[in-house]
Amino acid sequence: MRRLIIFAAMLTILLFAAGQGFSAILVVSVKGDASYKVAKGWTPLKKGQQLAEGTNISTGPRSKVVLNIDEHILTVNQMTTLRISKNSLTSDATENKIGLKYGSVDAKVKKIGSLKTIFKISTPVATSSVRGTHQLVSYGPTFGMIIVVYEGSVEGSNEYGVYNVVTGKLLFHLRGDKARVENLLAKLYGNSIVKIQPGRLTGDEGEYGDRNGDELIDNVDTDSFFNPAAGKARINVNIHWPVGR
Amino acid sequence: MKQILAILFTLLFCFALSAQNTDSVSFMNDLAMKKTATIGDAVRLFLLATGKAPSNFTADAKSLTDAGLLPDRVLKEEDVLKRGLLAKMIAKHLQLNDSLFFNIFKSERYAFTACVAANLMVPEGSEYDKISGSELVEIMTKVADRTGGGE
Question: Which pTM was predicted?
Answer without folding.
Answer: 0.77
